[in-house]
Amino acid sequence: MTASAYAAHLAQLNVATLRHPLDDPRIAPFVEMLDSVNTAADGAPGFVWRLVAEGAADATALRPAGEHVIVNLTVWETQEALWGFTYRSEHLEVMRRRREWFERHIEAHLVLWWVPAGHLPTVDEALERLADLRAHGPSARAFTFASSCSAAEAADHLQAVTRK
Fold first, then answer.
1. Per-residue pLDDT at 7 exceeds 90
2. For FRET with 131, which of 4, 63, 107, 113 sits at 20 to 30 Å CA-CA?
């Protein structure tokens, strides 16, 4: 985890339902991109942390949301940093080709929320935020790029995490 001058960081979870198993040749182009995209994330301005499976370079072996669902859980210093990596780096190629590898989600598949700097969210915490977004829509507790809120607007939820 990198050091940061920010009091709050932005946590991000996205889930993707695979069209085919990870070892299927039709998913191979995605799998081949993983190392370089993860390396780019690790070195991106504002990157703080990403979930990886124990002894692995990524989190694709973790399946907390279902057998065919992969998760991506990261923390960033700012929303701008996450946006920049997502839409202005080699990650954009994955976004452009996602329909080749992943099912279209009917429900929200991405959730953002603010955490105190230094807090690393658990997968359970992240899935709970996604469930909150799906059940109640965007709020200061769980939101999306299109419905974002500032860390100041989420201050009550930041304090709740710190008190735990």
1. yes
2. 4
Predicted TM-score (pTM) of the model is 0.91
Nearest to 62 by CA among 138, 126, 3: 126
Contact call for residues 147 and 138 (beta carbons, < 8 A): yes
Structure tokens at 1: 């985890």
Map tokens 């946006």 to a residue: 83
pLDDT tens-digit map of 57-83: 999 999 999 999 999 999 999 999 999
Closest residue by Cα to residue 6 from 163, 150, 157: 150
Helix/strand/coil percent split, the chain, to 5: 40, 20, 45
